[in-house]
Amino acid sequence: MTHASGLLLDLGQYPVLLGRGTLKACGTHAPICSRAFIIHQAASKKYAQTVAESLDERKTDLALVEVPDGEKAKELDQVEVLYEKALDAKLERTDAVFAVGGGCVGDAAGFFAATYLRGLQLVHVPTTLLAQVDSSIGGKVGVNLGATKNMVGSFYQPELVVDDIDALQSLPPMQISNGLAEVIKYGLIRDSDFLRYLEKNMDAVQAKDPGALLHVVQQSVQHKGTVVAQDEREAGSRMTLNYGHTLGHGIETVCGLPHGFAIAIGMHAAGILAVEKGLLEKQDLERQNDLIQAAGLALVAKTKADAEGIMEKVRNDKKRTAGKLRMVLLDKIGNCRIVEVTEKDAQFALEQVLE
Ligand SMILES: NC(=O)c1ccc[n+]([C@@H]2O[C@H](COP(=O)([O-])OP(=O)(O)OC[C@H]3O[C@@H](n4cnc5c(N)ncnc54)[C@H](O)[C@@H]3O)[C@@H](O)[C@H]2O)c1
Fold first, then answer.
1. Which of 106, 183, 234, 325 suits a disulfide with 238, CB 3.0-4.6 Å?
2. Is 73 close to ligand 1, i.e. is its CB under 6 Å away?
3. Which residues contact 138 (CB under 8 A, 6 or more apart)?
4. Do 343 and 327 form a contact (C-beta atoms < 8 A)?
5. What CATH code is carried by the domain that includes residue 193?
6. Span 216-239, average pLDDT
7. Is the distance from CB of 223 to CB of 182 less than 8 angstroms?
8. What confidence tens digit (pLDDT) does each residue in 137-172 have?
């Protein structure tokens, strides 16, 4: 549906307002609340202020709260700081939390919203490409437990997601690449037309052309929204979204790479295994890899010594999923399947992507 302030996408449980300048329309679309608790990181402060101005027009009490940058925001003691500030602000059950920032803000603020007073209204206002195309959709919120990422959390759906394409203009190129790994993933696992679009328009996307970014975010939101609507709690088809993640998560933690960069390497490893198993044509793997590189992402991690550490992480993840090691493998561009693999398979694939 087109709206004066952008597109209003209906994901079933909640709408996504998407367009240019949509932050200014937060006050029109956000749920009724007498207080707004607006959580942001330093880089998204100016966007939080725009959200605040739009809510001020409808006479909402406002509190702007800054959290530390990056994963530090996802430490449990930082969530405790939010609980204390919420007490000071006298937040009530009918009030709303606005998570304005990257995926770290969305995860931490979402976890806070899910748990404070057993649940406040939540609005995601993602300002990184990764957060717009992935983390703000699907309801996963959570924090880290020591070095173990996303160990404590919940499924908690927002009332509204507001994606403002103009907020992406301040992102450094590396953050565009970081988000593009997940975008490419949607094309690879679900949509060969979208993959072709990315092949043709990668320069425009990287140059932050608003029309290209709008298309990329819209397609990604719809892909993730559709998969999650079928399987909110990851009992089946949602697992396909883990393409590149089985090894990618281990690479992310052990090598300290940003999420998207690690997932790109994980997709390369999964592609090699799919070719090895006779599921995928070699030329399709080459198409995948060319696109990954065109997006400014690497195919290999320069860290051979860490192979055992990564495998240990993969084994720990396996324990979390009832002892079976499953990987998502492509059978062609635009189609994938979930395959049970041995540890030896995973190790073989991993070794091909470590230098
Ligand atoms: N909940 C989910 O389903 C899900 C899915 C994928 C990833 N995640 C989580 O998301 C997190 C990563 O998200 P991220 O990559 O957005 O990280 P992030 O929140 O750390 O943001 C990346 C960097 O961009 C800066 N930034 C934010 N908006 C900006 C803007 N508009 N202009 C300039 N700089 C800006 C931030 O300050 C930060 O330094 C991880 O913790 C990951 O576990 C969650």
1. 234
2. no
3. 224, 225, 228, 232, 238
4. no
5. 1.20.1090.10
6. 89
7. no
8. 999 999 999 878 888 999 999 999 999 999 999 999
Q: Is the CB of 170 under 6 A from ligand 1?
A: yes
Q: What is the pTM (predicted TM-score) of this model?
A: 0.96
Q: Helix, strand or coil for residue 34?
A: coil
CA of 327 to the centre of ligand 1 (A): 25
Q: What pLDDT digit, counting tens, does each position of 93-131 carry?
A: 999 999 999 999 999 999 999 999 999 999 999 999 999
pLDDT score at 20: 97
Give the span between the Cα atoms of 313 and 247, in whole angstroms: 9
Q: What is the pLDDT of residue 222?
A: 96
What percentage of residues in the chain have a pLDDT greater than 90? Answer: 82
pLDDT value at 322 more than 80: no
With a 6 Å cutoff on the Cβ, whether 89 touches ligand 1 is no
Nearest C-alpha to atom 41 of ligand 1 is from which residue? 104
Total domains, the chain: 2
Q: For ligand 1, is residue 167 a contact (CB within 6 Å)?
A: yes
* Same-domain check for residues 130 and 273: no
Residues 90 and 190 in one domain: no
CB of 236 shorter than 6 A to ligand 1:
no
| Residues 123 and 221 both lie in one domain | no
What are 128's two structure tokens?
A: 């990184």
User: Which phi and psi (to 5°) does residue 90 adopt?
Assistant: 55, 45
Q: What is the pLDDT of residue 135?
A: 97
Contact assessment for residue 148 and residue 78, using Cβ atoms and an 8 Å cutoff: no
Domain, as residue range, for 95: 2-170
